[in-house]
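Many introductory courses stop at the sequence. We go one step further.
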Amino acid sequence: MSSQKNNKLQSSLNTTPPIFKQVCVIGLGLIGASFAQAIKDNGLSERLVAVDRHAPSIIEAIEHGLLDAGSANLQDIIAGSDLIIIAVPVQAVQAVFVDIKQAMDNGQLASDCIMTDVCSTKVNIIDAAKAVFGSLPIGLVPAHPIAGAENSGYHARRASLFVNHSVIICELPTTSATAIAKLRLLWESVGANVMSMDAEHHDRILAHTSHLPHLLAFNLVEQLASHDDNLDMFRYAAGGFRDFTRIAASDPKMWHDIFFANQSAIVSALDEYGVYLQTMRQLIIDQDSTALMGLLGRAQAARRHFGHMLASTPYTDTSAMSASYNITPSNTVSGTIAIPGDKSISHRSIMLGSLATGVTNVTGFLEGEDALATLQAFRDMGVTIEGPDNGNLTIHGVGMNGLKPSKTPLYMGNSGTSMRLLSGILAAQSFDSVLTGDTSLNKRPMERVAAPLRSMGAVIQSTGHSGTAPLSITGRDTVGKPLQGTEYDMPVASAQVKSCLLLAGLWAEGTTTVTQPEISRDHTERMLSAFGYPVTVEGNRISVTGGGTLTGGDIAVPADISSAAFFMVAAAISQNSELTLTQVGINPTRTGVINILKLMNADISLSNETHVGGEPVADITIRSSNLVGIEIPEHLVPLAIDEFPVLFIAASCAQGRTVLTGAKELRVKESDRIAVMAEGLHTLGIDCTVTDDGLIIEGKGAATESGEVNNDQPVFGGGHIVSHHDHRIAMSFSVASLRASQQITIEGVETVNTSFPGFAELANQIGMSIQVDTGAE
């Protein structure tokens, strides 16, 4: 049954408890008794009865008020039940079906009575039903709650056992739609998350994720127990052994039954595991350090990665998803600090290092969530990457044609750069790919890269009317021909779109030329050259010709000027402040923020200018400044597109009006940064006007006749700011606290880790007062 039909049917049901007249639970172990307790506590059935051969459990359940009746004999209490829950060992289910059929034949049960189970295998349940009933009953709905606990039995029951746990329902074509909808409603009413799955697929999945780990745990304990020195082995066993083998304390009879019931899938999983085990054995024998590090690194990262992917969250701790900043106003910052590595360059170092021939060593890599998403994607495509370790990475390149298809969709977290640049790379590969992200990223426009890629011959499918992720990309082996070079005139300057097309052009036949209306950041062009790939730059026209190669080398990532911008503005708007930021990247396509602040009369100076990894860097010193409002030149907008949120804070502290135009790009970032910043500025008492492509801000800075800096007076009030989980919004309003009269609370700051891990700690180091509330209890 389709989910749409299911939803319509479910909405037509009476969702006010009780859902059933009489529920009969067969088996009062942990799962059966917990389900019964949850049904009782939520008032989901008028009557509740149970069958169990353990008489004390029945007696206690009746005394506790859980059951209305109970017996060791199903025929004694089954009459009138409209739902039967089978919670017995899997090998005993067929005998239960025999008893149920007898009750139907005797007229104790209606032929459409709903029957379900909680067993961890499904094909054998269906086969048992066929054997007993001849044809599958219309009320049969096989199900499996993915839940458990350390202890078992009636006394271990918990009504909350299924809350936020998955329950798999196998929707059989023979089952009535009403039976499926009512059982789904029942599970959702006890707090479970219900999903549908084919029975054979369920058994294969569970063989790998549950049955195989239990089998291995039993086997390892048996192996060690068989050693002559087994006492010492168990005495000195470390925590890893205890954690892994804990499940070997499970009920042997239950697992004996499961292993036989799911024989085919478990044997297949064991065979596959054996191949992987032999591979690792050989790597150790051969002392193949690179391959072993790749395997271990991919496994370590995948363990963490899939948790975020399934939850559709960035790579932040899920306990901190309601994190906030509580900031006490302060008015002075000072010191010399190092800013984390440049995010844009970190992304590109992973991409080009992976595609190069040879080894690439990266220093200064930004270990933020966005860059880690890119790193994980290339690990998923078979690249061995060691690290990150304090900003150091070693990438063992696989060459231009060495990427392998990922077995799962590539998860980009919250990183638009990862998704858009990877689209260009993947559009040229031989294999199919799917790119997805968290809830926020999956709302951002992707047709801006998909459409020009299609003009090169890419087959790429975006989602929905607005052209968002997930993106499905068809490999060239299926298409039957390579990408073709193109000439593309960009309607809006965007480094992401430009880079996407240039990267696709590395595999295209002929030359790919991108013409941009304004200069945008040129990290891709610079890094391609650093890896030995020819790039032609003629004014605003950038070209690459397909068919070349990349050669690995050393990449030093400079400090990120976008991150430095928050501290530049912090020093400029506060009183008696002087702050030096060391070795910040001053790529001329990124220095718009410096140029704009200088036009606003900021006191900024550069020193120790040099080059690191092909990128210009310098120490930046900024002092307290009497800022003035300006009309921001449109040619500087693409050079400061990421820094405008904090520039709006500077404009609020300036004397007079600041006008921004030509910045529509801000509306399609992690949030609509024009609307969200205007909302926050209004909350803090700033008069501003939103326009189609910018913002007009009435600065509240004080006029001075002597020229002395006068940043003593607050320009912001206090209040509660909603960042919409946009990292730059959160950090910008943190800077506003330097000129605030009252405390500022910023909600949704967990995504700061996407670009600037350790921001709050560094801000406090120079004199700010940010208290982080993780929201964890």
